[in-house]
Amino acid sequence: MLEKIREGSQGVIAKSILILVILSFAFTGVSSYLGSSTEVAAATVNGEEISNSALEQAYQNERSRLEQQLGDMFATLSADDNYMQSVKQSVLERLVADKLLDQNAAELGLRVSDEQIKAAIMTEPAFQTDGVFDNDRYQAILRQLGYQANSFRDMMRTDMTRRQLVATLVGSEFVLPGEAKYVAELQGQTRDIDYKVIDATPFLADISVTDEQVKNYYDSNLAQFVRPEVVSLNYIELNANDLAKDVQVTDAEAQAYYDEHKANYTQAEKRLAAHILVQLGDDEDAAKAKAEAIYKQLQDGADFAEVAKTESEDTFSGEQGGQLDWFEAGVMEPEFDAALFALNKGDYSNVVKTNFGYHIIKALDIQAGAQAPFADVKEKIVAQLKDKQAVDKFYELQQVLADTSYEVPDTLVDAAKDLGVEVKTTPEFTRTNPPELFSQPDLLQEAFSSNVLLDGMNSDVLEVAPNHVVVIRVNSHKAAGTMDLADVRSAIANRLKQEQANEAARKQAQEVMTAVEASGDTADFIAVNKLARFAQDVDGAIVNKAFAMAQPTDKPSVDTVALANGYAVVVLKQVNAAEGVDTNLLDSLTQRLSSQYSENDYRAVIASLKAKGEVLYPAAE
């Protein structure tokens, strides 16, 4: 109960349902309800349009989801136009799939009644308080989402109808016990092998590569030598945090600030509360009557703590004699708050109603408000004054930076002189490996913009973070193109040498394999018994080869496999059955296979609906 009161609508469940609702309904093309438009549709599904505005809304929601999921990595990925275009295309395909499902549901006459929608809303945990539907909470969440109750129910109807169809089509998928067991036994198998590595390194000493070979390889593989666009920047950085390091605040200044703002350093009055709770339940009149009966017991002399233990429906606090916690004014619900702070120490209130039920509240103890001593808050005040002075200085210098870099657009020297700072220079970087300072998508985009690279002008003042800005200009720029042969000659020669060394190792491995097949002698091989599928102490290429080779019959199976630097000869002597199958593993595999089967069914349904219908992409055309 106490946790519910404290957390309110900020709990994990509430946040989860907000995310689910946004994701669910963002892809339904909400903007299509807003009226007609002359814009070209992003797609047309059997004559019904998916507007570009609906696509853009869904795309922005997907961007937000990816940013939350990937964190800092998303900044780098989002700078790649091709990657973001693929994300947008996948969002469009989801919108198309949803539209196909909606149309098919309509053709089949699937319906969701008002009662079903009401039941779904009433039983949704995010809309409940202490397991009971809370209309105030429901309305608050809708307001936070920006929905009216009617439009939300319409969206629920669309979503539930669609899920009804999907559940009908793919929800009947199942996994036979033997399937999961078969997969588990395959995964649990081990192999007894012998192997020998033929290292390519010794062959390198006798290999030479001519200039003609290098030139021929270069001419035949130009696509391998494409150089991405590279830039190096000059920039001026202005950061309030750096300015704060040089700010000095005297004790007198801190004392004066404290004297002028004493109200900010007053510790609020706190009260230790206890309560007896009767939850509303289905019969509010009965709950009120019970609360008044409890109040009568207290009036007749019953001990508050003992009554709380036996009568309070807040189990956690009831076990503590009704005790909750220390509260400042404004923390609890208004009715609870008002009653608590009207009591003298040791007194209890009349019956008070809140959204959680009927309470009888007691003030166990009172901690009066007090003025915090200057010594206790001095450090905090000094930091505040430093930050304030630094921010004031930052805005002053930011205006100087903006004016000078604009008035003298072909150099940063003048702006640096006016600010008393140095012009810094980045190393060369591409769009995929920017320095951390320029990893944000908008800064990276500006770094490769025509204004900076082609016109050679200073950029505008660009925000890195609050009170942290830069102005940039190009230092050097190399357009994307093919690298010169001279720049890659050494790398090509080394590659050709390695390929020839690997070929020599392959031939020797073939000879060793032939000898083993003839004699069966593996005396100088490394023996590994019960090699597991995910073994870490043996080269992964050897492990994969061992589990791909045919099961031996009257004699071992022998084969070769390429390694990073050479070849290996692998002799498979025996396949060992799994040593028991864990029940938890079987359950996990069953769930995984069921999910895979359902996903395949879903994709097949969408593909079938696409094949039977007409899906056009006018914007792409």
UniProtKB/TrEMBL annotation:
Signal peptide: none annotated. It is a single-pass type II membrane protein. Gene3D superfamilies: 3.10.50.40, Porin chaperone SurA, peptide-binding domain. Belongs to the PpiD chaperone family. The chain crosses the membrane at residues 12-34. Its main location: membrane. This is Periplasmic chaperone PpiD. Pfam families: Rotamase_3, SurA_N_3. PROSITE patterns: PPIC_PPIASE_2. Keywords: Cell inner membrane, Cell membrane, Chaperone, Isomerase, Membrane, Rotamase, Transmembrane, Transmembrane helix. GO terms for molecular function: isomerase activity. It is found in: Cell inner membrane. InterPro entries: PPIase_dom_sf, PPIase_PpiC, PpiD_chaperone, Trigger_fact/SurA_dom_sf. It comes from Shewanella sairae. Residues 268-365 form the PpiC domain. It comes from the Bacteria.
